Amino acid sequence: FQTSHIWNSYYTAYAGPIGYYPGNHELLDLFAFFPFREDLLVNLINFPLFLALGVTLFSLARLFGASEKASLIAPVVFLFMPLIIRQGGIPQNDLFFLFTVSASLYFGIKNYFRNEWHLRTIFPLALCLGLFVGTKSSGIIYGSLIALPVLWSLWRYNRKVFIKNASFFIGIIFLSGGFWYFRNFVLTGNPL
Known about the structure:
The chain is mainly α. It is built from 9 helices and 2 strands; from the N terminus they run ββααααααααα. Strand 1 and strand 2 form a beta hairpin. The longest helix has 27 residues. The chain is flat. 30% of the residues are buried.
């Protein structure tokens, strides 16, 4: 709000200034703040993410062949750990980070198991991976652990359309999360 655009935004956290930190979750918080200019919706933003994370963990368990009962128990046990519950009513980005990485894993593993690497199946994977990478700087490392096998699978799937599919995959990641690193590079000369 202070600078009236996100290009040169500067904000601080508990640990001090983090003006060059990726901010996908903060944009989500900002859009939750707009309707009433009140932080109530911002504090509640993690509740839908909590539910979406549960659905994603259930889907991952089913994808790996777990029974329906075990697939229901796994996310419940994970989501009701005190550390995760504590994140429910506060606007920190950890649940968003967990949701986007689990959704990326789900789409990537599903595509790998089914050997479906079309633009329509690559898009949700790349979007979730881009949102993941654009949430925390550590997402670059973890995201590359997902992106490199995906690029290898794209190469193995069809070498004739590899450039098109890989460009699409990397482009969506850049548009949904890489913007922050480009912005940092332009402002400071260092993408991190």
